[in-house]
Design the sequence.
């Protein structure tokens, strides 16, 4: 990615952009002073839509402290202000996907009191313009696409995606099951496999194994040093909750569990997440995933959790959805990934979010 800019370009990029809405200004990220406002706006948006998720200040801190070519908050994050008060936030990034594309993505949130005034539409339109500029500077043989992601409870998100020419490309589920009673015994591991305790020093090997396992799955991920630092410095990084299976010196598969205390407190629940369930190719179809998932149920229950949750690609090629249903998970929320070719016709009206 070419980050070379002239002085005039840098000044233009850093200046607030006044949108065509009275009192609305879209300004660049102002550093850590913005972090509490980003948390407030995002959580208010999620709560208003009835989405069962929240974000914490420590998560935002870890996410935004490590810029990379693919996501730099100073360049890629915008805050919407109405009459000087932050009411919305949006960001863009890009990834090279496993289906051979370069996807430029945009996500955003608007606090409920500022909805239906065009704030979300202005943020998305601004993001698409900046994405187009970034993509024009990239010399890659990969086809370039625009993407976003919406929750089924969002009313404005799909409308804005459609107005920018995007169409549904893939569907994802969040799933949950009770773990406070009725757990089965832990299945045995296959021959030569063993569970080992891991610590922070094992983080990089686990990170690499996780990414290796998902290279034949749909989507993309940022495989940068900055992205790794965001992960190990985030509050969900707790190796004592990981269930990692080894075959000799090789990581065969793992379930990377996490507990989000602030989210649980705000929602009034006791939920643990199976944040990543991965089996590397050579160890698939051996019952290893089931054994690690059931071990995770017991581990999370020992930590006082009553619910286990995870996310899944509906069309996961390894049949993950069927496996999760077979161990008691049921769908609780649905999400949609949207895409369109980046060189397609640009957006129409901004909408009323």
Sequence:
């Amino acid at each position: 990615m070419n980050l070379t800019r002239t002085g005039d370009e840098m000044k233009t990029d850093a200046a607030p952009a006044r949108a065509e809405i009275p009192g609305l200004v879209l300004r660049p990220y102002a550093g850590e002073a913005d972090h509490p406002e980003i948390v407030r706006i995002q959580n208010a948006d999620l709560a208003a839509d009835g989405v069962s998720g929240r974000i914490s200040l420590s998560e935002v801190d870890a996410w935004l402290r490590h810029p990379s070519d693919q996501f730099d908050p100073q360049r890629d994050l915008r805050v919407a202000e109405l009459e000087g008060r932050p009411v919305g936030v949006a960001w863009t990034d890009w990834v090279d996907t496993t289906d051979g594309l370069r996807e430029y993505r945009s996500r955003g949130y608007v606090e409920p009191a500022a909805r239906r005034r065009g704030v979300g539409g202005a943020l998305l339109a601004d993001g698409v313009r900046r994405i187009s500029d970034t993509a024009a500077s990239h010399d890659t043989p990969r086809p370039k696409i625009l993407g976003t992601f919406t929750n089924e409870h969002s009313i404005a998100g799909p409308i804005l995606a459609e107005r920018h020419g995007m169409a549904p490309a893939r569907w994802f589920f969040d799933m949950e099951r009770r773990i406070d009673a009725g757990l089965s015994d832990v299945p045995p591991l296959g021959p030569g496999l063993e569970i080992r305790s891991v610590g922070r020093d094992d983080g990089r090997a686990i990170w690499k194994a996780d990414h290796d396992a998902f290279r034949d799955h749909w989507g993309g991920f940022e495989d940068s040093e900055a992205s790794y630092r965001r992960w190990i410095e985030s509050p969900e990084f707790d190796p004592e909750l990981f269930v990692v299976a080894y075959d000799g010196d090789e990581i065969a598969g793992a379930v990377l569990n996490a507990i989000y205390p602030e989210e649980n407190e705000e929602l009034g629940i006791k939920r643990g997440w199976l944040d990543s369930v991965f089996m590397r190719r050579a160890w698939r179809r051996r019952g290893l995933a089931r054994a690690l998932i059931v071990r995770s149920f017991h581990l999370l229950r020992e930590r006082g959790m009553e619910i286990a949750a995870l996310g899944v690609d509906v069309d996961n090629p390894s049949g993950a959805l069927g496996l999760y249903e077979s161990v008691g998970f049921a769908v609780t929320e649905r999400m949609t990934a949207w895409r369109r070719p980046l060189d397609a016709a640009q957006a129409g009206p901004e909408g009323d979010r």
Residues 242 and 256 are 5 Å apart (CA to CA). The chain has two domains: 7-171+337-341, 174-335. The mean pLDDT is 91.
